[in-house]
Amino acid sequence: MAVTGVASAQVTMYGVMDQGYGSVTTESDAGVQATKTTGMVSGVQSGSRWGIKGAEDLGGGLTASFQLESAISVGDGASSGFARTSKFALDGSFGTVSMGAQYTPTFSLLGASDVTGTDASTTASIMDVRADNMFMYTSPRINGIQVVAGMSGNKTDSTSGTTTAESDIKDITVSYAAGPVYVAAGSYAVNTTATNATTLVTTVTSEITIKTIAATYDLGVAKLYFNKLTQSQSSVDNGETNYGVKMPMGAVTLLAGYGRNTADSSTSSTDYTIGADYAFSKRTNAYARIAKGQAVNAGTITKEMYVGVRHSF
Q1: Is the distance from CB of 123 to CB of 141 less than 8 angstroms?
Q2: pLDDT values of the chain reduced to their tens digit, one per residue, 313 residues
Q3: Distance of CA 110 to the CA centre of its chain
Q4: 271 touches 254 (CB < 8 A)
């Protein structure tokens, strides 16, 4: 649905409805079943959502736009409000400046380099998705190179001279895309905070940093995916390396992913995902997924099976 008014402004409604049936089993590292949940599930391949977005040509090559996006639970119709995305942007020859609740640059990089696009069966697990109150700059892609930088966090200066920040995020990615090749790197940092119950002063207690490298290569008959993340917190390093391949075969697309997780303690674990998609049209497809995930410390094992249908509008 599009509504067009004066000054060439246009507002569009869009969304995704993704509903299926799934089974999720958790086991101990020894293989002893702890829980098993089966039933209808919303948002496996893509989070079910609806949104509105619009843009206005301001002249001189400058465009103003907005986007508001809400999660939907298909099973009961529950909605999150515009908690998925709520942003305003200005776009021009300089690139795009956006402000609001939006995906972090590193998460977008991860989605571009993961075989499942970070759906519910992804082998990638240590990346935050969105940030509130984020100011982001996206450069134009010049000679294949693009830079995306974002920062979030409202700082408070106390009379004692202490400066604190809540959910202070700094994130930057650099990518190169040309023909079948895509390579990228990202650096993400977020401060965690604690508030003193007596003085009510909030201070930074630790910082989490995540370094990412990623790549894809389209062979035509298949597309290869790779990403590697290293997370550091309080001198403890956890990491994961994920590989994937996707093979289109007419209306059917086959995919497989494998992940290896490591920690300072020398413990490790593995993840995998296997799936298939069938395209009824450009906007509607069926999917099936089988996946296994395990915490980096060789802890709880999660096994998942899903089948469902996704429709975009």
Answers
A1: no
A2: 455 444 456 899 999 999 999 999 998 877 788 899 999 999 999 999 999 999 999 999 999 999 999 999 998 988 889 999 999 999 999 999 999 999 999 999 999 999 999 888 888 877 778 899 999 999 999 999 999 999 987 655 555 555 555 568 999 999 999 999 999 999 999 886 655 555 555 555 568 899 999 999 999 999 999 999 999 887 778 889 999 999 999 999 999 999 998 886 667 788 999 999 999 999 999 999 999 988 766 678 899 999 999 999 9
A3: 7
A4: no
Q: Which of 191, 224, 189, 195 shows the shortest CA–CA distance to 210?
A: 189
> How many angstroms separate the CA atoms of 11 and 254, rounded?
36
Please give the C-alpha separations between residue 134 and each of 88, 110, 149, 154, 256, in angstroms, as whole numbers.
11, 18, 10, 10, 34
Handedness of CA 150, 80, 16, 271 (dihedral sign): positive
Helix runs in the chain, H state only: 105-113
Q: Which two tokens stand for residue 4?
A: 């067009």
Contact 294, 26 (CB under 8 A): no
Say which amino acid occupies 157: D
Distance CA 1, CA 125 (A): 36
- The Cα–Cα gap between 147 and 186 comes to 10
Residue 147, amino acid? V
pTM of the model: 0.86
**Does residue 256 contact residue 115 with C-beta atoms inside 8 Å?**
yes
CA separation for the pair 67, 253 (Å, rounded): 31
Pick the CATH number of 2-312 from 3.80.10.10, 2.40.160.10, 1.25.40.10, 3.20.20.60: 2.40.160.10
